[in-house]
């Protein structure tokens, strides 16, 4: 439910904070005061597009902030918020939207940045705006399906079961189609796959073989250089070079000197130990160098064989993968595809068997769905027809028809359409073909009234320009329908009609004031006395008189009695 809406620099709204309550929140004021601007600001919170042109003259930015309390049953909203890592554990949602003159937009939900797309998805769980565009949306088939399928809990459950099997059936159909298409290329592809498998198999590749080959090729390619390094190093250690003393001989002399010195002073005993260990290590190093040098030989024939082997590996890696592991993985895929092709007939037979079994289940689910839809369509048509009668359309006929679609669709095997006739004797035709704007508005209100007690997915509803072109008894009936909806949901309603205003649980007055070159719109709640005066003004259209005040009091008194009866009815349901 919407608790507060705070607006900064949005058109005529310089800084306004509005507190909303449960039930019916009525917004009234003179024409041009800015009532629709407030609804536009709420629309910004719900993800609607906001142009930089909406920024108040002389300002660089606009901001709108709304606080919502969350209902326990808002499971879909909770899952959406969790997916965006937004914490709603305190049962509250604070949404902030800011737009700058440069056109940059920022959206925060409980302190987390989200995109406009996500904001629109969140807004769909919070507020349902009932206006001219929403009336036109009612004409779309998907909207009519949604209305019918949400009317009956059994139908909602049956649809979920159907969709689960439909998804599995559609996936199997797609798999069958892909295999059929692939079969046309099998003859040519088989030759290619067999050649690739043969080429890789004949190479007899081993994991990391290329690394071992590379190391040995480097060694054999530089055998002469390596031999030179070995000989020079061995000579320095053992023989000596350039007439100089060998390293081992020099270290042996140092060792002997330290050994002799120890007879007179043992303070260099540790030094002697280090020199002795160094002498032993150097002896081992010299021995290793000698053995390595004796084993080293230049083998041109082996080098050629290794390079040829490396060429084979490089060629396969260029064709099938960057490494030997990639080439072997490619071969596994090739072998699996070969196996699939060879098992094509068996796989297709199994697929067709599975598809037939799923179609049997799908048909049973679809038939049950059709039966439930037809039953729900009768009940819903009767309920909406009753509301249309209460809205002054005494001769109107309204029916929701469920007809076969003759194929499996995502939501069953049905077509759903609304049929309407405004006058007796006229054939019922598709709603989109015959309903006028005013009729469509009242039909939509009738639908909202019927659905309100069953639909808990969206806790708040906005009626924008619901009273356009109506008056008298029709206005009174529209007012009662809105008040009835407000027994189940929070309702925000802009109106110019006293019949609707007198039904308010919270009455907000919107006024425009000018000071110099500046114009500001303000919003404030009315006291009971102020409310009577405002309804009297709306009813009389002239200065408030004692008679108009008495009439306003009577309207409010009658409205309270009507709402009390609605509350009892809602409680019984």
TrEMBL record:
Q: Which SUPFAM superfamilies has this protein been placed in?
A: P-loop containing nucleoside triphosphate hydrolases
What is the superkingdom listed in this entry's lineage? Bacteria
Q: Which GO terms describe its cellular component?
A: bacterial nucleoid
Coiled coil (UniProt feature):
334-379
Q: Provide this UniProt record's keywords sorted from A to Z.
A: ATP-binding, Coiled coil, DNA damage, DNA repair, Nucleotide-binding
Q: Name one GO biological process term.
A: DNA recombination
Domain (RecF/RecN/SMC N-terminal) ranges:
1-514
- Family annotation (InterPro entries): DNA_recomb/repair_RecN, P-loop_NTPase, RecF/RecN/SMC_N
**GO MF term set:** ATP binding
Recorded hits in Pfam families, A to Z, give: SMC_N
Function summary: May be involved in recombinational repair of damaged DNA.
**Family note:** Belongs to the RecN family.
Which protein, by its recorded name, is this?
A: DNA repair protein RecN
Q: What is the lineage of its organism?
A: Bacteria, Bacillati, Bacillota, Negativicutes, Selenomonadales
């Amino acid at each position: 439910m919407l608790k507060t809406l705070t607006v900064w620099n949005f058109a005529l709204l310089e800084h306004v904070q509005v507190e909303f309550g449960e039930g019916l929140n009525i917004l009234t004021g003179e024409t041009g005061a800015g009532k629709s601007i407030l609804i536009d600001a709420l629309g910004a919170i719900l993800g609607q597009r906001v142009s930089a042109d909406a920024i108040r003259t002389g300002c660089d930015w606009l901001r709108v902030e709304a606080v919502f309390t969350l209902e326990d049953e808002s499971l879909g909203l909770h899952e959406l918020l969790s997916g965006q890592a937004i914490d709603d554990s305190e049962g509250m949602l604070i949404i902030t939207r800011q737009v700058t003159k440069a056109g940059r937009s920022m959206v925060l939900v409980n302190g987390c940045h989200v995109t406009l797309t996500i904001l629109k998805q969140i807004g769909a769980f919070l507020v349902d705006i009932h206006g001219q565009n929403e009336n036109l949306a009612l004409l779309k088939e998907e909207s009519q399906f949604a209305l019918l399928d949400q009317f009956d809990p059994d139908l909602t459950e049956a649809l979920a079961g159907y969709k689960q099997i439909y998804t599995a059936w559609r996936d199997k159909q797609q798999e069958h189609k892909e295999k059929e298409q692939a079969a046309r290329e099998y003859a040519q592809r088989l030759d290619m796959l067999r050649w690739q498998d043969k080429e890789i198999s004949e190479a007899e590749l081993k994991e990391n073989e290329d690394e071992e080959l590379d190391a040995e090729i480097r060694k054999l390619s530089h055998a002469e250089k390596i031999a030179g390094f070995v000989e020079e190093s061995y000579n320095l250690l053992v023989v000596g070079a350039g007439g100089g003393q060998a390293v081992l001989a020099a270290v042996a002399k140092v060792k002997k000197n330290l050994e002799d010195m120890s007879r007179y002073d043992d303070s260099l005993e540790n030094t002697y130990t280090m020199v002795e260990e160094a002498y032993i290590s150097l002896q081992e190093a010299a021995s290793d160098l000698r053995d390595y040098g004796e084993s080293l030989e230049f083998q041109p024939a082996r080098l050629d064989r290794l390079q040829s082997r490396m060429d084979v590996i490089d060629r396969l890696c260029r064709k099938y993968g960057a490494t030997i592991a990639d080439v072997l993985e490619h071969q596994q895929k090739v072998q699996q595809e070969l196996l699939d092709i060879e098992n094509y007939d068996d796989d297709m037979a199994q697929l067709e068997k599975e598809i037939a079994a799923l179609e049997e289940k799908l048909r049973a689910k679809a038939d049950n769905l059709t039966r439930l839809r037809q039953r729900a369509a009768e009940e819903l048509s009767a309920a909406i027809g009753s509301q249309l009668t209460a809205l002054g359309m005494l001769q109107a006929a309204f029916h929701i028809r469920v007809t076969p679609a003759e194929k499996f669709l995502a939501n069953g095997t049905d077509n759903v359409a609304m049929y309407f006739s405004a006058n007796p004797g006229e054939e019922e035709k598709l709603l989109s073909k015959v309903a006028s704007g005013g009729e469509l508005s009242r039909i939509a209100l009738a639908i909202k009234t019927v659905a309100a007690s069953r639909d808990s997915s969206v806790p708040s509803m906005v009626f924008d320009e619901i009273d356009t072109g109506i008056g008298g008894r029709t206005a009174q009936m529209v007012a009662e329908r809105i008040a009835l909806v407000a027994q189940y949901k929070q309702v925000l309603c802009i109106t110019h009609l006293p019949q609707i205003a007198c039904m308010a649980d919270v009455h907000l007055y919107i006024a425009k004031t000018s000071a110099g070159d500046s114009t500001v719109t303000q919003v404030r709640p009315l006291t009971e006395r102020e409310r009577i005066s405002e309804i009297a003004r709306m009813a009389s259209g002239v200065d408030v008189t004692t008679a108009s005040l008495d009439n306003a009091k009577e309207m409010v008194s009658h409205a309270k009695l009507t709402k009390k009866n609605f509350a009892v009815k809602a409680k019984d349901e």
